[in-house]
Amino acid sequence: MTNLLRRLWHGIAAYALKFGVVGLIGFGLDVLVFNLLRIGVFGQDHLAQSPIGAKVISVSVAIVFNWIGNRYWTFREHRRKNFVLELGEYVVVSLGGMGIAVGCLYLSHYVFGFTSLFADNVASNVIGLGLGTLFRFFLYRFWVYGHHRADGLANLARAEEAQRALFEEPDVTALPGTESTR
Fold first, then answer.
1. From the CB of residue 79, how many other CB atoms can be counted at a distance below 10 Å?
2. Is residue 51 a contact partner of residue 109, using CB atoms and an 8 Å limit?
C-alpha cells in the first residue's frame, strides 16, 4: 500500500500540486488583466474591452507565465531539449484550454444574455477555467512533457546512464548471490 501511495504521489499528485500553484498565479494574472480590460483601464470602446477580446488577451498573458513556470518547475525533469517544439505544443494545448474558456464566456454573454462583469467572470474564470484546466493538465503531463518524449531531458539522462552501464564493467561482487573470486 505504501508503495502504491508513493507511486501515485510521484506519478500524478506531485505534478498536480505544482501545476496548481503555477496555475493559481497564472489565474491571478488572467483575472486581473481580464477585469482591468473589461472596466476600461486601458481605454474605452475598443476590442480589448469586449468580453472576448479581454479574455483572449488575459489568457495569452497567463499562457506565457504558465509555460515558464511549468517548464522550469512543474515538469522540469521532463522538459524538452527542443524548447521551440515544446513551446509550440504547449501553445496548442493552451489554445485548446482558452477555446473552452472563451466558449463558455461566449455562451453565457451572447447566447444566454448574462452580460454583467460578474457573469462574465463566472463563465470564463470559474466554469471555463475549470474545464480548461482538466484538459490542459492531462495533455501537458502526457503529451507535451510525457516520459515517452525522446528529446526529454529525463530520457537523455537515462540514455547516458545506460551507455555508461554498457561500456563500464559492472562490479560482480555487488550482485546478490555472488561471491568474490579474487
1. 21
2. yes
Model pTM score: 0.68
pLDDT tens profile 62-83: 999 999 998 899 888 877 788 8
d(CA 178, CA 165): 19
Could you write out the DSSP letters of every residue in the chain? -HHHHHHHIIIIIHHHHHHHHHHHHHHHHHHHHHHHHHTTTT-SSSGGGSHHHHHHHHHHHHHHHHHHHIIIIITGGG-BS-HHHHHHHHHHHHHHHHHHHHHHHHIIIIIS---SHHHHHHIIIIIIHHHHHHHHHHHIIIIIT-TT-TTBHHHHHHHHHHHHHHHS---GGGSTT-----
